[in-house]
Amino acid sequence: MNIQLINFLEKEESLQVETLSWRNAPHVARYFQIQAIDLATHLQWLQKLKEIPPTTVAFFIEVNQEAVGVTYFHSIDEDTQSADWGIYLYDEATRGKGIGKEVLRLSLAYAKTTLHLQRVYLEVLSDNLVAKHLYEQVGFRLLEQKGFVLRYQKDL
After folding, report:
1. Across the strands, what pairs with 105?
2. Is the distance from CB of 104 to CB of 138 less than 8 angstroms?
3. Of the candidates 45, 156, 39, which has an alpha carbon nearest to the alpha carbon of residue 105?
4. Residue-wise pLDDT tens digits, 5-30
5. Are the beta carbons of 144 and 155 closer than 8 angstroms?
6. Which of 10, 112, 114, 115 could form a disulfide with 156 if both were Cys (CB 3.0 to 4.6 A apart)?
């Protein structure tokens, strides 16, 4: 299985916009604090990808050259050398096959070598046991819990 992260800006705009339907699909949205976003919000997010220096960087997750999800860094802060990270797999058939773990490994390597970050944060819903286990397994530590949201940190 060939897993690659392809920068959003390298793909056609129609596919970038299509990811709004991926993000809002019920099987994906249930893992987010905000259940659905509108087109205007998504287009604003796509514009942020073009900022220099970037505060948001996004990638298509490709498995055997087919886009199956998205991973991204947001709130990139050069001063604190930190950012928040997120992921979702739109293609349900890809879940449970180690793709998330490999994407996380590739993302953390990118954070360290390309973005020059010293720490990465993420948030996960407390009932997402599979994700929590993965994050703790690779060294993320729980910082705080606010309601159903857990905030983790990993030093690179």
Report:
1. none
2. yes
3. 156
4. 999 999 999 999 999 999 999 999 99
5. no
6. 112
- What span, in angstroms and rounded, lies between the C-alpha atoms of 30 and 50? 28
Dist. CA 131–CA 124, nearest whole Å: 7
Instruction: List Cβ<8 Å contacts ≥24 apart for 45-53.
Output: 46/8, 46/16, 46/17, 48/74, 49/8, 49/9, 50/9, 53/78
Tokens 């990118």 appear where? Answer: 110
Question: Could you tell me how many residues make up the chain?
Answer: 156
| Residue type, position 88, single letter | Y
Structure confidence by residue, pLDDT tens digits, 24-74: 999 999 999 998 999 999 999 999 999 999 999 999 999 999 999 999 999
Measured between alpha carbons, how far is residue 50 from residues 3, 8, 9, 138, 147 in Å? 24, 10, 8, 30, 33
Sign of CA dihedral 38, 55, 134, 15: positive
Gyration radius from the chain CA atoms: 15
Domains of the chain as residue ranges with CATH: 3-116 (3.40.630.30)
Q: How many angstroms separate the CA atoms of 139 and 126, rounded? A: 17
